[in-house]
Prior knowledge:
By secondary structure, the protein is α/β, with parallel strands linked by helices. Helices cover 36% and strands 15% of the residues. The chain has ten helices and 13 strands. The chain has a seven-stranded mixed beta sheet. Strands 1-12 form a two-stranded parallel ribbon. Pyridoxal-5'-phosphate (PLP) is lined by residues 10, 75-77, 102, 148, 152, 172, 174-175, 193, 196.
Amino acid sequence: MSRAFNFCAGPASLPTAVLERAQQELLDWNAIGVSVMEISHRSAPFIEVAETAEHNLRRLLNISQDYAVLFMQGGATAQFSFIPLNLQRGFGRAAYIDSGHWSSKAIEVARQFTDVEVIASTQGQGYSRAPYQEELDLSSKFDYVHYTPNETIGGVEFDYIPDTQGMPLVADFSSSILSSALDVSKFDLIYAGAQKNIGPSGLCLVIVKRALLESTTASGHLPEVFNYRAVDQASSMLNTPPTFAWYLSGLVFEWLLAQGGVTAMEAINAAKAKKLYSYIDQSEFYRNPIEVHHRSKMNIPFTLPDKALETAFLDGANKRNLLNLKGHRSVGGMRASLYNAVPEEAVDALVEYMQQFKQQHI
Ligand SMILES: *Cc1c(COP(=O)(O)O)cnc(C)c1O
C-alpha cells in the first residue's frame, strides 16, 4: 500500500502514524472489545479521551485556565453566527478586518446579528495582502474585533497580531492553528474548524477567555448548545459530541507533542513553504500573486502561464499521486496546502513534478 501526497485544503491530510494507530485500535479500543465510536460519551473511558485531548492541546499552545477550551459542532461557519450572538458587550457593533474569502463570509453572517463595521479591507488590492496595522480604523468602540489570520483560499497570512487598543480580539485560525508558535494570551477568542490542521471534520475548537464570557450580555434567546458559557459549564457535553473526531484529534495532539510541539512544526512548515515559494518565484513559469511578507505558509496558490494547461497539469500530478492541487473555484489556478501532516517529501515531489511539467510546456 502506498499513501499519496495529499495537498487538499480541507478536509485535509492526517498524519499516517495517527491513522495507523486508529486502525489498530478500531475494533477493540482500550481492550474493551468495541471501538471508541461505540461507547457512551459519558463513560469514564471516553471522558478520559476528552480530557486528555484538552490537556494536550493546552500543553501544545500553553493555554492557561483563564481560557475555556470548547469542542463544538457546526464547523467554523457556525461560529460566524455564535460569535456575534455571544460576544455582546453593549456597543451594538463589531469590527471586522476583511482580508479575503473567509473574512468576507464571517462579515456577511455577522451582519445578520449585529452592526458590522469593516475597519480595513484589501478587496481593492485583489486581496493580494492583509491590511496593515496602520490601516485599521479603531476610532470607535466595538464589542470585539474579528480577523482571519490565514485566508485559506487566497493564501494570505497576517505577519502580525492586530493591536485592538484593549478591545476583545477574535480570530478564525481554522487553517493555521498549531502550525506555528502562538501567544494565546494576545487573543480573547480563537476558533478553528478541525478538518484543516487538527483532525476530521465535525469538530470546531473554541478557545475563549472566561473573563470575556462573564462580561457579555449574551441574549436570553440564545439556544443552549450555541451558548459558550453553557457549553463550558457542561465541558462541551451538553449533548453527544462527535466522539470519533474528538478521539482522533487527541491522537493528532499526541503526535504533535512527539514531533516536538508547535515550535518544531513551525520550523518544518517554514522550510516546506520556503521551498515551494522559492521555486515558484525563480521558475518564470509559475506565479504566486501575494505580497511576500503576507504569503501563507499553509495554503500556497499558484497559476500556470496559460489556463489551458491546467487540466494537463492536474492529470500529470494525479498520475504521480500528487493529489488535490486544484485551486478553489473562486480564484482558479492551483493551490498546494502544506498543513502539519504534509511531509517535506511531498513538497520535494511536487517541485520536481513542476520542474518537469515546465520543461515539457515552455
Ligand atoms: C475552512 C474554513 C472555514 C469554514 O469551515 P467549515 O468547518 O466548513 O465551516 C472558515 N474559515 C476558514 C479560515 C477556513 O479555512
